[in-house]
Amino acid sequence: MQFLRRAVGGEEAKKPMSETEELIARILSAHNDFEVLDIPVTPCAPVVIKKLYRRLALKVHPDKCQHEDAERAFKRLNDAHTALSDERRQRDALGAARDEKMQRDAAGLRARKAETEAAREAEERARAAERERRAFQQRCDDEKRRRDRADARAAKAEKEARVAEEKLDAERRAAREAADREAAEKEERRREKKALQRAKRRLRAARDALSGGDDDDDDDDGDDETADGDAAAAPSAEDVEFLCEHLDTAALEDATMLLLRGGTLEAVLSECRERVDAARRAAAEAEAARKDARRAAAAAAAAKKALENAWSDVETAALLRSARKIGAPAPETLAKARDFNKGGANVNWGAVADLFNTSLANDRRPGEAQFDKLRTPDECKHRFRDIVKEAAAKLARAKPANVAFAAAASPPPAADEDAWSRPQQEQLEAALVKHPAKDFKDDPKQRWKAIAAGVEGKTAKTCLRRYKALAAAVKAQREAGA
Questions:
Q1: Considering 25, 56, 85, which residue would you say is the last residue of a domain?
Q2: Are residues 322 and 362 in the same domain?
Q3: pTM, whole model, 2 decimals?
Q4: Which of 141-155, 342-356, 429-443 ranks highest by mean pLDDT?
């Protein structure tokens, strides 16, 4: 406590107690005689008690110790010596000391248990208070999050409503502007139409006035030459209608003024006819260009479809295996029997197609490309007939004497220059679009030379032959569809 007093600025700490002071304080605070003599609570011989008494008495005797409590301590020490020196009184003191010690121990145990229970209850109350505080904080956080979510939803709904309102206003404004624009355009067209009609009426009226003046002067013999000249100057009704059909309002007004001033409309008619002819030629050229583009696109599509439907060597071998399993004759046998047009007519090509598609899916090795395209029975049948024709062509080349059979079996094989790869086909399609026929009307050969320049490894003649073949294929496909 002394250091606490010094820390808070209290009174100065007292000097530490001496050995005599500590001894006197122990004697006065002892609970029984055994504690006074500082011996255990057990039976003790009088000799030992006397020896201990004398040693302590020398320290606390009032004549030798100047402490204020020395007399009381000496008296308490003397009483303890007297009680413990008698055996009967020692036994009584021993029992009382043991009982008192047991009571003190029990009281201490109860006090410690009470302290422990109080500490436990305090800790439990602290934990309950902490749980309550956390629960309250959790409820506050949940309420705050709920309010935040509600505020966010309200803000989002408000923003969406504002955006929708702005969008609706913009749509209404755009609709009003479009309606105003349409009304203005309609009014402008109406005014232009009325102006054009007025110009047409004035031109027809001017023409009728000139024609009517000519009729009034027919009886005047002296003015025959003048009448003939005015009649020559007056345009015909067909010319006037032609001008009314193809001229705008300003041009019609100019033509009317020219006619009223006594001029002729030959120049105006000539220019109008030239403009109409030029427009017709441009329309015809545009239509021809569109037709060329459609034909080129159709040819490109046909070529692309032909490339997509091309049979690979793996598919051809799988088709032959499937056809043999179903019971179709070998292509060489049909070629020798000159049955290359109706080869395999009695074969179940549906079963052949199913077996072919299944075998391709099962024979695919790891890492190989998968054949995603399934072949139909008609495709299998046509491919088998093509194989028969190829076999017949080989036989015809092996036996040149049999020319008729070779010619009937298959046409001679195409040269290498007639073989077209996919990049060459794409180059041809691009060149056909880049060089339309309308740009080479005077010299069509130059067009095919320009196209051949854009196709690698092909001549103009080869490109023309390829284009004709594709056009024929497209035409045949259309006729078959019709």
A1: 85
A2: yes
A3: 0.34
A4: 141-155
